[in-house]
User: What shape does this take?
Amino acid sequence: MIDFEYHAPTSLDQVFGLLDQYGDDCRIMAGGTALVIQMKQRLSQPSHVIGLRRVENLNSIESTPEGVRIGGLCTQRQIENSILIGEDLPLLTDTFRKVATPRIRNMATIGGGLVNGDPNQDPPPALIALGASAVMTSSSGDRVVPLEDFFIDYYETDVQPGEVMTSVLVPRAPVGSGSVYLKFLPRTADDYGTVSVASVVSKEQSGTCKDVRIVLGSAGVTPIRAKDAEDALRGKPLTDENIRAAAALVKDVVDPLEDFRGSAEYKTDMAEVFARRAVEQAMAAIPVGS
Amino acid sequence: MNQKVHLKINGTDHELDIPARRLLVDCIRYDIGLTGTKESCSVGVCGACAVLVNGEMYASCITLAVAVDGSEIITIEGIAENGNLHPIQQAFIDHGGFQCGICTPGQVIAAKSLLEENPAPTEDEIKEYMMGNLCRCTGYYGILNSIAAAADLMNKAAGRGG
Assistant: This one.
């Protein structure tokens, strides 16, 4: 592995000082599950690594008037096992349970995963479907970025120099909505999805679609929100025919990378199939009487 | 660049002066000399290198030793109690839980982690928790049976229903 110096700051002010001092020659490390492998493979070669593990107050999960605030350093397993999140945001409990293995979830953090910008990850589609935002903190204060706008390109995110993702704000799903995260796993349970889809659906008493979110993972260089498909369904009766027609529009916005999980063409076909199933299952998950 | 690291491994304190790039698995095997922990895939997927860091199962092949400075670490060598095999280890012997043995230290550590979180897991819960520990001798049912038997043994010893 490459050689580097490891820094273990205990406060955000120290982190900002180190980021300012070393600039492009340093990387921040949270759980390290991505960065250590990247350094082993020499895909990332920083001279300085700033470990966040000792920085205090970055790993709590709190209720807010709008929803839940998740500290950037919360491990994925902490989120999966959080009673608060289980009650308020069951979509996240289910999504985080589908990430890799319990061992990786013990190590990997929500902030580290998002900043890494791997388009195959599970949390981004679910968080975007819920309308979550990241709080990016620097020495000049907080900047709140909707996660929908956070992913720019393959492993490229909207992290500005000097910033740390200190928390993720997740609004509660609308009352009377149903949600689901589907991960197509034809190989092994710990794999990345061949494609994945998160959907949140709410309906009027008449049975028409009040609102819908459809967000795909492993379907391009970033997570992809299928807005045309959502627009095609919003305000329409949630019939099989309408859901099928909306899901077909997903094919126009995805641009999957070919890999050993399938060709781009196959993944495009599966994106449509899983978008349809996700909307159907989110609809079925709407509480009775809503 | 060398840095000072303090690790408590299986109850023994170690002061180390090691490069920041030293992986925990290499530190345990080569700096400490405990070779029970195995490295196999080297990318955190296979589970052979599993150890407990402050009670939580980690992949030591993608953990920097400097990053867990000050932690308490349990390896396979720290599982036995007073020279007696841990019930999980005994169950792996009694129920055919291993063949070649390379994955076994990680399997036992993962099983210990599981049973500490959930002392009476269902078969599905065992499968879900253990899915990140690969065995290339296709011994999965032996492993599942061993863990179920260990849970029974431990619950009976603790006076819990089982």
About this structure: Residues 5-51 of chain A form a domain with the Uridine Diphospho-n-acetylenolpyruvylglucosamine Reductase; domain 2 fold (CATH 3.30.43.10).
